[in-house]
Automatic annotation (TrEMBL):
Family: Belongs to the FMN-dependent alpha-hydroxy acid dehydrogenase family.
Enzymatic reactions: 2-hydroxyoctanoate + O2 = 2-oxooctanoate + H2O2; a (2S)-2-hydroxycarboxylate + O2 = a 2-oxocarboxylate + H2O2
GO terms for cellular component: peroxisome; plasma membrane
Keywords tagged on the record: Flavoprotein, FMN, Oxidoreductase
A GO term, aspect molecular function: FMN binding
Active site: H288
InterPro entries on file: Aldolase_TIM, Alpha-hydoxy_acid_DH_FMN, FMN-dep_DH, FMN_HAD, FMN_hydac_DH_AS
Name of the molecule in the record: Short-chain dehydrogenase
Binding site for glyoxylate: Y37, Y142, R177, H288, R291
Organism, scientific name: Platysternon megacephalum
CDD domains: alpha_hydroxyacid_oxid_FMN
Amino acid sequence: QDARREQGPLRAMKRVTTIDDLRELHRRNTPRAFFDYVDRGSYAEETLRANRADFEHYKFRQKILVDVDARSTATTILGEPAAAPLILAPVGLTGMQWGDGEIHACRAAQKMGVPFTLSTMSICSLEDVAAHVDKPFWFQLYVMRDRGFVKALIERAIAVKCSALVLTVDLQVIGQRHQDIKNGMTVPPELRLKNLIDIALRPAWIASVMRGKRRTFGNLMGHLKGVDSVKSLSQWTNSQFDPTLSWKDVDWIRSIWPGKLIIKGILEEGDAGMAIKTGADAIVVSNHGGRQLDGAPSAISMLARIAQAVGGDTELMFDSGIRSGQDVMRALALGAKSCMIGRAYIYGLGAAGEAGVAKAIDIISKELLTTMGLCGVNRVSDIGPQVLMDM
Ligand code: FNR
């Protein structure tokens, strides 16, 4: 019966041609509280909307009759070859969208030749993911109040050979998502009758979660003294985001993490400069997908000036709002070397597990390849401001 339930999502995938199609399948498959947790943003969602709408301000310059037969989306990300300038962004609770979701997403990323980032707030732990995939992946770190735990997390990331550390710096105070509160999407989730009925109507989701082996924050549970139930875990988690964080903490992380360090959550030129001074190998221009400071500008509208301030010495990554290859092309034209995608791949995961994530990466890569062709560009490294109209 499980196999039959799985066939449904895979059959529906045949008609998928856009990330929006994956979103619609995710919406249908998944309990409302989990879908909204992914889809929505903070407060009035001004920044969430701007993240999408502002891409349209940047128009492409069409270039015809250039031989683009040999074009390719292949590139390098932090010196490593990648099939496309794409990275799967860290996303908390991925394993609640699809059973063992982090393992499925990481496998899809590795098959498709792009990096995967595991969130601190993942359901599958660092060790779980490492045991089920072939190649190294990236780890995203939140600096919790308990610095001993942070150090232990870094040591675990080193032990499983994570190839980069993504330090997220835009969540020392948490932006409220009204919809999560209305849906009872708290840690632990509120078990309201409405939610239970909603869950009962989602057989594909139930089947995937029942097949999955993990149910709670894998990196946290079992590694903390006195935290042995979901209730004590939630109390611990809620008390751990640290408003005292400062650049000194970034220096400390730099001193104990020997590998590549990426600072994620930069939205302003001065902060980009500071991040580089701390010795970051890359920075991610991001507003956390419109989930944190509402009223902040869209990430795409800040990219060019941050790129100018950074000046080419530090690798620039971008996220927040990418739903197509056209969006990736614009971000690359404005100065990014690669893009993280968050919701785009989670929609794929919720639509059909590993196959859905691979589909999301494939859709965006192919759209990028076509856009490159119509703008007369053969290589990712040749994408620059020349592909956009003067504004
Ligand atoms: C996130 N994001 C995030 N970032 C991070 O550093 N650690 C995390 O645990 C999470 N968790 C998380 C959950 C969900 C459901 C979403 C949608 C996002 C932010 C994420 O890494 C990325 O910055 C955004 O998703 C980018 O915007 P798009 O691509 O979703 O528009």
